[in-house]
Automatic annotation (TrEMBL):
Enzyme Commission number(s) of this protein: 5.1.3.1
Gene coding for it: rpe
Name by which UniProt lists this protein: Ribulose-phosphate 3-epimerase
Catalytic reaction list: D-ribulose 5-phosphate = D-xylulose 5-phosphate
Annotated catalytic residues: 35, 175
The organism of origin for this protein: Adhaeribacter terreus
UniProt keyword list: Carbohydrate metabolism, Isomerase, Metal-binding
Source species taxonomy: Bacteria, Pseudomonadati, Bacteroidota, Cytophagia, Cytophagales
Record family assignment: Belongs to the ribulose-phosphate 3-epimerase family.
Cited SUPFAM superfamilies: Ribulose-phoshate binding barrel (SSF51366)
Pathway(s) the chain acts in: Carbohydrate degradation
Length: 218
């Protein structure tokens, strides 16, 4: 199966969000990846509900919303109303993770859990059957353009083994430092979804770059 490609709008030209959204609509991208940062959970602030809602007006593909915020449970319904189709929260930000997953599902959105690079996949063993997506951070969250963390491949393999063993349908998403060079190995390791930000939006031809990722040989 070809990968699901989810370009990260965080790396786009914010002064031209409509044209960037239209480019993604024309491209072979499958999802819009939306990074929400609060300056507390991660050392950066991106954008919030009004910008996500503005993107939704022009997006013709699902919004994959990644909440890098503290107390995400306070805002789940708001992000759903602003157009989120998939809502991913961080394990590290949710002391009552199962409750938050159920909260997301009650809105009708798909539920994802993100893990920081230092967090082992084993923490999801008791909840993997209840979630739709696991986002493995392959850089430290907060800023784009970081170097890919090589241990990610081993984490993907461990997570895939857990998913298969429990009969879960969770997709494995990789976020951070994804490019043409590491994408084949990521897919061989068991990844399903590739998030690419600066690699796509700084390319001379973003649509071709997305197509090349979509049709990666592995």
């Amino acid at each position: 199966m070809p990968p699901i490609i989810a370009p990260s709008v965080l790396a786009s030209d914010f002064a031209n969000l409509q044209s960037e959204a239209e480019m993604l609509n024309r491209s072979q991208a499958d999802w819009f990846h939306i990074d929400i940062m609060d300056g507390r959970f991660v050392p950066n602030i991106s954008f919030g509900l009004p910008v996500q809602a503005a993107i939704k007006k022009h997006a013709q593909k699902p919004l994959d919303v990644h909440l890098m915020i503290v107390e995400p449970q306070l805002y789940i319904e708001d992000f759903r109303k602003a157009g989120a189709d998939i809502i991913t929260v961080h394990y590290e930000a949710c002391p009552h993770l199962h409750r938050v997953i159920q909260q997301i599902k009650l809105t009708g959105a798909k539920a994802g859990v993100a893990l920081n690079p230092h967090t082992p996949v084993s923490v999801l063993e008791d909840i993997i059957a209840d979630i739709d997506l696991v986002c493995l951070m392959s850089v430290n969250p907060g800023f784009g353009g970081q170097k890919f963390i090589e241990n990610t491949y081993a984490k993907i393999e461990k997570l895939k083994t857990m998913i298969v063993a429990q009969g879960s349908s969770a997709l494995i998403e990789i976020d951070g430092g994804v490019n043409q060079e590491n994408a084949p190995k990521l897919m061989k390791s068991g990844a399903d979804v590739l998030v690419a930000g600066s690699f796509v939006f700084t390319a001379a031809d973003p649509e071709k770059t997305i197509a090349d990722l979509k049709n990666i040989a592995y």
